[in-house]
Design a protein that fits this description.
With 126 residues, the protein is of the alpha/beta class. Helices cover 27% and strands 17% of the residues. Helix 4 runs parallel beside helix 5.
């Protein structure tokens, strides 16, 4: 029965597997992309994951700085999430030049709505 087969009693009665078991819940998937420049080659590796963590070191206006330092911006991380058809995006690895993080969330949601900030010590439901 553990392999999904029906059970046959000693008297020959067939007990269908679906009558005595419940389907397993679908496993959750997670992908982590950090310290990475915008790279669409990542998409096949993250395709359809439940939760994607992607760095957003800089806001969108500093895309040239991000590229020169092999990092990503808010819009770039969101684009990877969108192209990868992920369910939820978690952004982090913010440059220390920023004191507030609100703009990171606002900009990323312009491209990929289901986004949250990665805050140390927080738990996230997927």
């Amino acid at each position: 029965m553990q392999q999904g087969h029906d059970y046959v009693t000693k008297k020959g009665t067939i007990i269908p597997n679906e009558e005595v078991t419940t389907p397993a819940t679908k496993p959750k998937s997670y992908a982590y992309c950090a310290d990475t420049i915008y790279d669409e080659n990542l998409i096949p590796k993250i395709l359809g994951v439940d939760l994607l963590y992607h760095e957003t070191t800089y806001l969108k206006d500093l895309h040239e700085r991000a590229e020169s330092r092999f990092h990503s911006t808010t819009h770039q991380a969101a684009a990877i999430a969108k192209l990868g058809n992920v369910k939820k995006l978690l952004i982090g690895h913010f440059s220390s030049k920023y004191e507030l993080l609100d703009d990171f969330l606002t900009e990323t949601k312009e491209v990929f709505e289901d986004t949250e900030l990665a805050i140390e010590g927080m738990c996230y439901k997927i």
